[in-house]
Every structure is written in C-alpha cells, then in structure tokens.
Amino acid sequence: MNKNRRNFLLGTSAVAATAAVAGYKDTIKTAVTFSKDGKNLKDEIYGNSLTPEGEIRKNFIKNDDFEIRNSVCNGCVTNCGVRVKINRKSNEIVKVTGNPYNPLSTDPWLPYETSIRDSFTILGKDSSFSSLYRSTACSRGNVVFDKAKDPFRVLKPLKRVGKRGENKWKEIEIEQLLEEITEGGNLFNEGHVDGLKAIRDIKTPLNKQHPEFGPKSNQLCILGTGDDGRKAFMVHRFRLSFGTHNYQGHTSTCGLSMRAGEASYLGDFKKYPHLKPDFENCEYLLTIGTSPAQAGNPFKRQAKLLAKARVEKSLKCVTVTPMLTNSDSIAAGDMSQWIPVIPGGDLAFVMGMLQVIINEKLYNKEYLSLPSIQAQKNANDASYSNATHLVIQDKEGFNKILKDKKDALVIDEKTNELKKASEVQNAKLFVDQEVTYNNKTFKVKSAMTLLKESANLYSLDFYEKESGVSKNVIIKTAKEFTSHGRKSAVDCHGGTMHTTGFYTTYAIMMLGAMVGNLNYKGGMSAGGGRYKDFKGSMYNLLGYKGKVKPKGYRIDKTRTAYEKTAEYKNKVKNGQNPYPAKDTWYPLTNALESEIITNSANEYPYKLKALISWNANFMYGQSGSHHLKKLLEDPKKSVPLMIAIDPFINETSKYADYIVPDSIIYETWGVTSAWSGYVTKLNTAKFPTIKPKQATFKNGEPICMDSFMIELGKKLNLPGFGKNAIKGKNKKTYSLDKPEDFYIRAFENIAMDKTPVPDISDEEIKLAALEPYVNTLKRICGKNWRKTAFVMSRGGRFEDKKAGYKDDKLSHPYTKNHVCVFNESLGKTKHSFTGKNFSGVPSFYKQQLANGEAFENLYSKEQFPLAAFSYKSNVLSAPSVSGKRMQHLRYTTYVDLNPISAKKYNLIQGDIVSVNSPNGAIKAMVRLRNGLYPNTIGIEHGLGRDGLGAEDILVNNKKINGIIRRKSGININKLGLLDSSRIFATISDFVVGSNARQAIPVKITKI
Predict the structure, then answer these.
(1) CA 450 to CA 452: how far, in whole Å?
(2) Which of 581, 622, 620, 629 is nearest to 601 (CA)?
(3) Is there a contact between 970 and 979 (Cβ–Cβ < 8 Å)?
(4) What is the pLDDT of residues 706-716, one digit of tens each?
(5) What is the crossing angle of helices 705-715 and 739-752, to 10°?
(6) What is the pTM of this model?
(7) What is each CA distance from 303 to 294, 448, 985, in whole angstroms?
(8) 85 DSSP β-pair partners
C-alpha cells in the first residue's frame, strides 16, 4: 500500500474514534472510510442542488416559484446585507447569499443605481464581473435562518406556572398578559406585585428620604442586546415615554472595555465613538485581542479586505493573542505574524511598545506638536492631539488642563513662551516645569511627558515578564509599526475584557497617536456615517410631545460620580472619610447590564420593581452569572416582576414571569448601520422577508417587540403611541399603531436624504418581491412611495465606493474632538473605593479586584497555575448556535490545551477534566492544540448552553424534551469570579465596570 495513503487511513481512524465521542460516529465513519452508505441523490448529475431562482440567458429571467428579497443577517452582530431566497408556496427560506449592493457583504459593491435585473446578470457565471462583485454569506449566515422553524421557538405568550427557573409555563392570550403586567396583583399566589401602571409615576420620588434617586418610574429597567435595527424604537419610543433612566444593552459583557478605552482616546464618554482600521489600505495592522477572519466586526468584510490587501497590496497583519487563529496564514508568508501573549498580558506588551517608541523617538513629532484645530488646518493635517497641552500637577486643580477659558495653554516651540494653543503652530512636546498665568504659578507637565513617565514606570524586562512576549519582539514590533507611518493601524475587541481592559484599549489606541493615523487612508476611521433615518427630512421619529427626560440615579450606578451622591455628602458633613463608598460607581461608563441584578438585590442605590428583558441573555454572557441564580429565582430578592420579550427561552428568559414572543431573523423590521470598518455612508433596511409565524394581536399584527410596545404604550396611556403619535416635517400628524408606521417612515427619510434616490419601476418591484408592500407604501409615503421602495429593494442605501477618500485622507473624518494623549475627564475622576485619581494616560496595572488587590496575591500560582481565556469562532456565535444546521459545522466545544501543558498534567486528547477557578467549575473534554500559549486554557465561545432548547420545558403540562447537542460543550463564564472587595458582584474592570471574562486563574484535574 502507498505509504501516504496508509498514513491517511491511520489518521482517519483516529479522527473517527475522536468524532464518535462528539456524536459524529456514523457520519465520520462513512466519510473517512469511503463507505457508500447514505441517502440516494435526487439527480445523478446535479445531486441534491437547489432549484435555481432564475436563469441567465441574455438577461436574468426570474423563477416565479421563488421570491428574492434583500435583507439583513443577524447570525452575529455585524448585520451583513444578504439576499434571501424564499419558496413562495411554503414561505420558507431555502438559501441566503450576499447582497451585492452592500459593502458589508462584498467589496467592491455594485453602484447603488444598478438595476435589480442587472445585479443578477452581473453575478452570473458567464459575466466578466462575477468574481469582482461576488457577494457571499458566511457559514453562520448560511445556516442561521433555520431558527424560524425551531421546535423550541416561543410562538404564543407564556406565563410561568411553577417557581422561577423551573421552566414550567402555560400559554395565555396577549390581552391577558397586557392586563396582568399593567395592573399587577397577586399574579402567582406569591404576594402582591406592582404592575407597570403603578410603577409609571414620573413625579413621586421612589424613596422620599432620597429624592436624588429619581421618580418611581426608575424602578423599571429594560435590558436589550446588540442593536438589530430596533433599539431606537425601544429607547426613544418606549423607555423615554415611560420615563425610566434604565436601559442597558449587552456592551458590558461584550466589548465595553474596548469601547470605553476608545472613548477615552477620542475624548467622548457620552457617545462612545468607535474606531476601526481602514483595512483596505493599511500597510501594517496590529490586532490585539481580536482575530480578523475569525472574530471582530465587521466580520466578513474585514476578512475579505485583509485577504485582498495581503495578496494584491503589501499589508502585514500581526495578531497578538494567546492562541494561533485563522488570522495567521502560512500562505501569506512574511505578511502574517502571530505574537503569543499571556491572557491579560496585552497591556504590558503595549506599554512596552510605547516605551520604545517614546524613548527612541519613533513617534510623529510634527503631528503630535500640533496643539489646535487651527494648527491642524494650517498643516493640512487630518486631526490633532493634546500631547502638548499642560496638565496641572499641584494638589489644587490636579489633573486639570491649564486653560484660558476654553483654549488650552501650551509652550510655543519657537519662543518657549506660554501661549494659547490656538495661537501656536507647533508646541513643545515634553514639558515639566512651573508656569505663571494670571499672576498664579502652576506646576505643569505636558500630556506627552505624563505618557512618557507612565510608559517608563517599569522596565522592558518587567513588561516581558508580565506579557510573556520577549523584549526583543516588543522592540521589533514597535519599530516595524512606526516605520509604516500613517498607514499603520490597530484593532482590538473581546480579548480586552479583563480587569485592566480599559487601560489596555486606551494604550492600544495610543499607538495610533504616535503615528498620527486618525482620518488617514490606511489609518484609523470612525466609519463613513449613515444617511438620516430616524431623524430625517420627512419625520423626526424619535421626538414627540410628552417625551420624558429621565432624572436621578441609574440602577447600574453609571454616569454619576460618587462625589455627587448623598452618601458622599453625608459622610463629609459628618466629618467622616468618604472613602471607600459602599460600592463602586462608574461616572465614565455608559451602561452596565452586568450590575443590574446584584444592585437591585443589594438595594444600592435602590431596588427595581420590574425588568423587561428584550432578547438579553446576561445569564449566558456574563462571567460569574451562576452566582446570580438564587437572586433571580426569588422575586423578592431580585426583581418582583420580570417580563422577557424573546423568540426562545434562553438562559435568562427562563427566569421570567412572562414571555412575549418576538420576531426572529428575516421577520423583523429595522434600520441598522455598521459599527465601523467602512468609510462610506451605509444604512441597511430590514422588513419582514418571510411571514412571521407567531400569534397576532386582534388587529392582525404579529406579536413582536415593536407591536407589543405599541399596545403596551396604549394600555398605559403613554405619549408617543396611537393616534397623532408621529409628527411630519409638513406639520401633519400620523398614527403609530403598527411597526410599519414607524420603520417605513425611516426608510422614507433615508430615501429623501440630500439627493433623493430614484423612483423604482414596476419591473423592479416584481423582481424585488415588493408587491405585498405596495399598498402600505402608498398609504404611508404618498408620492414618495416609489423612492422608499427603491431603498427597500436594495436592502438599504449605500454610498458608492469612490466616495470614501479625498486623496490621502478619508472623506468622512472624525471631527467631534481631538485625540487625547491625556484624558482630562478620566484624570479628574476618583475611584469610589480609594479616592485616588485615575491615571489620565495609559498606565500598567496588574489583574485586580475593584479595590486594587492583585490577583497574584489572592490566587497563588501554586493553587491556580493556569489562565483561562475565551475566543470567538469563525462559525459559532451566541445568536446562531441553536440551529440544527449549525451542528454540522460545530457539534461541540472543548478545553483547548497546549500539548506541553497537557503532558505536565498527564492528560491526553479526549480526557474528561474538571476545570476549577476560585469561584466556579466546569467539566469538559480536552483537545490538544498546538499554537496555544503554555499554561493557558482556551475555550471557544458559543456552546455549553442551559437554554435555547438545551433543557426540558413544560408548556401547558406537555413536556418538550431538550436536545442534548445544544447542551454540549462548555461555557467559560461558569468559571467567573466574584469580587470579594464588593458587596456582592461579579469581577469587572476596575475603571469602567465591564465584566471580566478573560485571564481567569484556574486549575485542571483529570476526572
């Protein structure tokens, strides 16, 4: 026998043995042994291929058995544009491909006014442009649509009949559900529960002794998830009509450390702007804690652009992660590099780079010395920084920037004089001296001096030890990064979700300041923006009479400094040291979903009375959430009334009192954009591509988040719902009775923004399968209905590719603020435990509790010698794992272990082990994996479910058996830590409170 063939067969036998454990026995056995077992093909030539949606002769001829609509995929949070093929008879989706008009699905994308018919012809196999405009859906997008007919989908309203968390339910009519949650009462024979009607009091303080808490209406909290295009409706139409301060998305369990660090860099803790590389044109890309082509956002677009840039241009992509990922490719040769790093060691690595860049003067001095917008314009630059601004070091005014009114003061590089920044072209970069201003002497340091001092607090040897990256690699990377100037870029994401993730991201972004890459082609972009949608030329859909401006404290203790609280003031009044506070406060943070349940249970600052969870799932996504189970199981401890709006019963909604069905992918309305990673204007438009399957209201509208909130708003007599709720710019008013009344008007705003789009033809209406919407469009949009339909037919509105650049700069630059080498808001903020100011520049800190206690002093290496981290898959994502099709791509997940580490613990592939942290434990199967940092454990995120059909449920006394595969795999968050320095809370970033799910100290033992 041929030796290579013998080795192959030996290998396949091993694969078959391993796969049998994972549930693939029959499938793999057939595949790897070349067996002929299996189902017969439908056709000897074409196999089981799908019937085509049309054929191309001279032009595209549509097959009328199918409808083809452009929509948006929610298989992950990227929101790619897709083209959906629907069987007209069965109303089922049979295939999903990319939308060739949408930049998130292809590059280049079709010019916006390309006809629908031509869009098919161009993509045909015989077209010379087919490979150029080829538009695809990723593996998730190709399988996630089977959620529509999932057997565990909630199609009718449910009310719990057992105790919370027991998964015992009965179906009820939607009218009964509305009545009970509105009026309250003894709903479960567990005592009286206030309904939303009683809670919605925007005048009476929820605590008379503490009116600063705000009104009773603050005792409702709404939890959301990623923005699928409907967040604006929930926030502006319901939350701000109800009058509660409390809406939190999933950011604290997803990427808040990254978002907050970038907000600090750009000086905007209110709107939290977000940067991404110009993937297409950068020459050196340093990605830390994220993996292009495997994770990150926009997932598919960046993968394609990076592949093209490495092959067709000269991009080098360097990935800094604990595990070798798909981002590193042998095929790319020297244009690809993996730098292994200890989990949580990324901050030390970057601080080491900053030390090298500053000490060896590798930075862009000309850029950093520009002190103002005037100097920027004079130099024809694309941004400026506050590197030369002077920061007060005296006790009085400490960490404030010295200013003449709003104008920062600097030292003129030419004259060495103290002047207003607006009067200086180039300012002195390194300053450490006393200055006199208005007859007062100040000790000051420039922002760049503070950064230099911070970077030099520790040696390169120290940074090497803490990061696990040799100092030679740190030096080489710093030099190589700066050598590409403004065409060097950085990216980071979920890998920064550890206790020092905020400063890690701030430091990573600071590398961009060193080369001055903001708003440059090949540098960093805040995105191309969007056409006006919810607030546009035709309607302001977010404004209405009676909209409430919330008051008081938020339940997550964000947006408020501890020094402004009554607790602080009372301690000072009584002569007490005000520090530490009873618990942490996070004035620089926008939202903390991970703090809601514990804060309510601790009654600090107050207790909630009701929670609406809209597709939220903190019980799966929050590290350490297993500690919250007892709180959620007892309504009296956590929240008395919990309403989940969810198409499935997930790990969080299983603890609800009521479940309201929601639409799922391709059934929903919405307007989305992209986070970043694009440089042209972009809006996607979603509308029901297939008919929703859930129960309806009496008006025939399917029950979903939007329709439910409309009916609940009417039931509560809230402003902004029902008759005359929407006001047009023509001063006419319109009713809001159905979601289409809101979203189609947003589509009309998009269509009419600036230069209106063309009218759609009757032929295109048919090709885009918009006939069912024509009458509705005419009713809502009047004379603009054809333009609105034009937007719907293309799945949104997309600026042409050529509009992204002006010479060497971006056409849509970030201009709302300057780059902050020193962030004054951060530097003036004090930690609510220690009373010490935060560092206003990136600084190194070890993994720690909220009070500053280092992990290494609490969890010894002898007891917990390994560090666990999670990583994102190129296949799995939290929204897509439940589908039956997904199991063919990824059946289960493992504890990934380096063979060197495995040998140390006498483990082999397939061993069942227990992994224990100080506060949690999991059982799992070992998978040996080269390309993993020694003494670490990697866990793929997405499986290990306790909801979404993984467990048995009882509905109307009928048992629905859980699907074993959905419970397969592991969830790293069950290893999550409690912060022993706080009242009762899971571990988090010590500055912004983001949930810490990386760098968890663990030990491993064979079972």
Answers:
(1) 5
(2) 629
(3) no
(4) 999 999 999 99
(5) 120
(6) 0.94
(7) 8, 35, 37
(8) 68, 95
